[in-house]
Amino acid sequence: MSIRFENVTKSFLDRKVLSDLSFSTRDGEILYIIGKSGVGKSVTLKHAVGLIKPDSGRIFVGSHEVTSLNREELMPVRRLCGMIFQQTALFDSMNIFDNIAYGLRSTGLDSDALAARVSEVLSLVQLDSGVLDKLPCDLSFGMQKRVSLARTIAPSPAYLLFDEPTTGLDPIITNAIGSLITGLSRQLGTTSIVVSHDMESALSTADRIMLLDNGGIAALGTPGEIRQSTNPLVMEFLAEINDTPEAGTSRTPCIWRQDEQSYREYRRAIHHDDPLDIEEVDK
Amino acid sequence: MKTVAEYEKELRSLAMPLWGRVLHHLGKPVAEHGATVREFWHLLRAVLIRLPRRPWRRHEIAISVVHIGIGSMPIITIATAFAGLVVTNEIAWHMREALGTISMIPGFTAQFILRELGIAIPALLLTAKVGASITAEVGTMKVTEQIDALRLLGIDPVDYLVFPRFVASVFATACLTLFAVAVTMGCAISVAIVRYNFSILEYLNAVRHFIGLADIVCALVKGMVFGGIIPIISCAYGFRCKPGAEGVGTATTNAVVASTIAIILLDFVLTYLFSLVL
Predict the structure, then answer these.
(1) DSSP label at A39?
(2) Which domain holds residue A280?
């Protein structure tokens, strides 16, 4: 049960986004696809479920060749895949219950079984049943992400595809969503592909990490192998997460700024210099 | 080191000829509208193929009927009522000028209302009200990836978004056409009675000689055709909506313009065809 890309090429107008891309997921693994903005991470993900057709190459989801299927034939393959979209893509005219239940209605479940399944997946994403009557716009973005996750896992897909699951979330919710991705993937035994530009989450969550650049694979390996990589792009991403708090760009130091003692210890351990004044850093 | 003049000369030599620039500027919008026209035909075909199949999505259709039909009644009532008042006065003035009599007011007014005014006004109002809202809704769903989410849940967006709106719009527009004709006629009769001293029986008797069942059938057919193309054109523009607020706005504007033109063109074609048959 894997997703396999074979020499996939895709261009938009005169811009080549994917160039002879070939890779394959392993059964039950969490594969992170990392890369800068616009390198084709989301495009890769959408190819897997037939939302975008490649110019050339073949894509397999399990034993199904997605690239050779028409609209009707794609439907059962798409039901095997659950996808979390960058903007949550919740149906804004439906309440949370209907959002989660919508994909289940075609499975023929009766109303009791439907309600039970909705409650079950809601608890899996750590939301209480009080949200069921609310509309998506009544929830925070983090909660919407969780509902989106619940809707996706409700029909028990074999593959989970995450498109920037932590974009726009604060560090605490990001960590929580990261834990949810790992927990659910392990618990449900699904093969997961996570598209992200968050190397820190990838290193802590992924079984393997694939770095995309110029339409192809710049690096592919386990988090340990990625940490050891001498690839300049990998080093650039790793440098981002090892960034000093003064830069104000990395997520970890932002948390540490809240705790002066931790921050000073961080400086001593990593930079072997005198602790900086927090006030000065914040300026 | 090149001088500014040399750069300008080089740029001029690289620049496209005038006809090339004209084609370049015309080509892109033509290609985009061409793609939307293809989307329109695809949606129309998909909906017509879907028509005899079950389930009929009664719940979604009922919601759309309420939205399109009941929701549009106030605006249609106001617009057609005033149209009825105006048309009687206009026809009376022209008849008095041309024929020197106003005895034909009921017949001419009734024919004009049943063949054109009572059909075109609701259709154009629905284009602005319902068509715009459908494009904005579908466009926003496209931009926020809700349509992709539907596909991944194994739900055909045509089945979920286009089909219920198409059925509801055809049904609601046919009903609204009859309603608009009734309101317009009512107001036309009121003016004829109050201003031109017709009695209601005299008016209705005169109308009976000018219009028949065929006129009512033609009005219904026109209303149903207009009701059918509004959601299809609106959804086609919604499905091809470009990202962002501007994309949704542009798609909505284009959908309203295209639907309006389509209704006027179809009105001409249908009127011509009916004139051959009747």
Answers:
(1) S
(2) 243-283
- Cβ B152–A82 below 8 Å, yes or no? yes
- Summarize pLDDT for A182-241 with one digit per residue, the tens: 887 888 888 999 998 888 888 888 999 999 988 899 999 999 999 888 888 888 888 877
Instruction: Flag whether pLDDT at A125 surpasses 80.
Output: yes
Residue of B nearest to A75 (CA): B154
Q: Of all residues in chain B, what percent are helix, strand and coil, respectively (each to 5)?
A: 85, 0, 15
Among the listed ranges B26-35, B85-94, B101-110, B200-209, which one has the minimum average pLDDT value? B26-35
Best of B43, B147, B151, B152 to substitute, by most chain A Cβ atoms within 10 angstroms, is B152
d(CA A162, CA B60): 30
- A222 & A275 share domain: no
- In this structure, the answer to whether residues A188 and A278 fall within a common structural domain is no
Q: Residue B23 corresponds to which amino acid?
A: L
pTM for this structure? 0.78
pLDDT at A210: 94
- Do A58 and A192 belong together in one domain? yes
Residue A276 scores a pLDDT above 70: no
Tokens coding B143 = 């931009």
Number of domains making up chain A: 2
- Is A49 inside any structural domain? yes
Picking from A42, A49, A81, A85 by the largest number of B CB atoms within 10 A of its own CB, the best residue to mutate is A85
Q: Are residues A80 and A103 in the same domain?
A: yes
A248 and A222, same structural domain?
no
Strands of the sheet containing A208-213, edge to edge, are A81-84, A159-163, A191-196, A30-34, A208-213, A216-221
Q: Which residues of B touch A (CB under 8 A)?
A: 144-146, 148-149, 151-156
